[in-house]
Here is the input.
Amino acid sequence: MRTLLFFFFAGILHSARSSNYYFSSVSGNDSRTTAQAQNAATPWKTLSKLNSFFSSLNAGDSVLFKCGETFYGSITVTKSGSASSPIVFASYGTGVRPVISGLQTLSSWVSIGNGIYESYNASFGSAINTVIFNGAMQAMGRYPNLKTANKGYLTFESHNGNSITDQQLTSAINWTGAEVVIRPKRWVLDRCKITSHSGNTLSFAPALTYNPYDNYGYFIQNDIKTLDQLGEWYYNPSTKKLDVYFGSANPSSYSVQASAIGTLVTVNNQNNIVFYNIGFNGSNGKAFDLYYAQNITIQSCAVMYSGIDGIDGSATTNLWVRSTYFNYTNNNAIDLNYNCNNSLLRYNYIANTGMTAGMGLSGTTTYQAVTIVGNNNLVEYNTIFNTGCIGIRFGMGDSNVIKNNFINYFTMTKDDAGGIYTWAPKNSNYSNQKIIGNIVLNGVGAPEGTDRPGTGSSNGIYLDDNCTNVDITSNSVANCGRSGILVHNSFNTNVLENILFNNLTQLTLIHDYGMPNALLRNMVIKNNICFAKVDSQYASYVRTEANDINLLGVMDSNYFCRPMDDNLTMSSSLMINGIRVDRVQDLAGWQSAYGLDRSSKKTPILIPQYTLNSFAGANKFSNGTFNSNITGSYAAPTCSWINNKLDGGTFQATNQYSDFSSYVVIVGVGSVSSSRSYILRFSSMSSKDTLINAYLRISGAPYSRISDIKVIAIKTGRQENEYLFTAPASCSNASIIFEARCPKLNFWLDNVELYDANVAQTDPDSYVFYQYNNTTASKTFSLSGTYMDVYGKVYTNSVTIPAYSSVVLIKQTPANMLYSFDRSKNDRKEINLALASQP
Here is the structure.
């Protein structure tokens, strides 16, 4: 990386032949001479004057804008500086940084009825993307409104070419000429013009990016008929009028600005240009458009209210963006989309990118904070907050490093994406890609407008198809709706020393049928902490299209922690003899099945899922001991009563088939209430180690499930089981269902009890301490008690976290310290601890 001269901090250093040219939008005068403009007391006034004079600038010259002032218009760079003497755009005077603005303030509002007012401005162009309403970026009007059900998405049941059909859509309003925003896939939002509206069918152009899934979402915008909420707007390019809904409010009480300038700064085939301490506000398209440019520096600037992108760069080399603030960008904040090499993005703050569905561009690489395509790029020490889709997307090159960035809240408009994401085309072989020391938090997910509106899909770090030679090292990923790290159809990858916490699954490895040659191979996965905070999460999940999990590479010395239930830590799915086999295992079962993780460990301390205070009433299944018969229960395919298998009489269920057909044991328990909690207890044994699902169901039609599902690992040896169902749906005739899918299986059941219980559920936050440090120095945090990390180290009163790292600890209390972790044997033994007497 090149070194920037420190001419920024004590005035501009320049050679004897270089000049400073001053601009003031308040006291400037464009009729002044060139010599006068070199004196801060007699500046020029406008950007038009700057552009007309640009060919007369020389390498080393500086253009200085007065602090605290706003300059309307754009800058077109038509001349280069030199490597040692760049042309510099900076500020002079005191106060806030000067602003290059494309915004026009609207006035002279005229009412056209129904709470809508319009304002004319001759400078507006063919479209408006940026409207600022009382200082905040304002979306155009839409139907339905964002705050309605499903975040304002309607649902189309079918599609045919360039049309969608929604059986609930009527022709009461004809939407021809408006814009339809369609979500064909989770990671895509496409904007199309409605060419016709006939009944419940909308036809549109252009074609969608992908053939859409049916039962996905759409909404309508860019039509005056959508305006019914304060601030919503519509622009009519034929009249150059902006229509805004004010309702009963007075427009004069509000500030409304809109952009009339497409690009604020254009650098085309020019080099060695510096922008320092300047604001760039209100582009209708891009704040910066860089094309075949070299050695461009943007430092200590502010880029706000960008209608499309903050920085758009193509075939640009040696771009340095440092300590610059980006806020309110409709599409991408920094979009280096083609052959951009040797870039440095450092210490930038990027917020509120692509946060409004329908205001970004169509396609896949949109609603992203940083996109960088090329070689030898370094992205480090950036803070990225509130992103519609991806925080940092990189790839299509060698030797890219994504290091020590803090990414918080992403995939909020589109999903099936990641906080950090990369992808490669087939047969590519990029090398030396590194994702190091990043902190990635809160992958929210955006499920609305899909066929599963309650289930988001967000990953912290996501290696998508065909990625090779990527190191994922020492990152901290937490609170993501799908995976902490997802490696999908990729290989030759190292996943080392990461801390993954409170994601739906901490570590996910997937090879699927879409990429038959992109097998999970030559992977090294070591020394990671995969910590599932609650029992609805897994430490890891591996899925393949063959019986080949044992071939993925080296997987060892990891810590797989699921302290609220470490019997079901590892999930896998593979094909055996053409049949899909799904497994959920404890660490020992995973080690035995695949020969991986021989030196890996499980949680050092268990956390109780709940505290049982008392039972309310008798066992709801009176024949639970099966002492003489199995009355009140039955199974499919077959069941029988046998003697002396567990305790006296025992219920036996048999699946005699050799395939993976499911069998079901049904036990009637009568009424249950949504206001109550229930404890299920039973003794079990099976002819094979397997999994069963246990849940409550309505006994008669429609046989609906009325509780959550408990996944239970059943062993060949006898075991005692206890599980809690909290607030099932009320039902007057319920059954307990035990369901399994395993060939040639005998399953024995005894001592079945279901009690109405008074319980106190455990708040995992009272036991688990997770904290991160997104600073460049170590930081100490207070602890309220004594805690243990996954390695068995004890902390009292405080813990110190290194820079760009995190820690996860489990509190030691009498409730969870009855058992301790014997690391040499990888199991637990009962011990007598002094801690047990502590409060």
Q: What stands out?
A: The CA atoms of residues 335 and 371 lie 5 Å apart. Confidence is low (pLDDT under 50) at residues 1-16, 818-839.
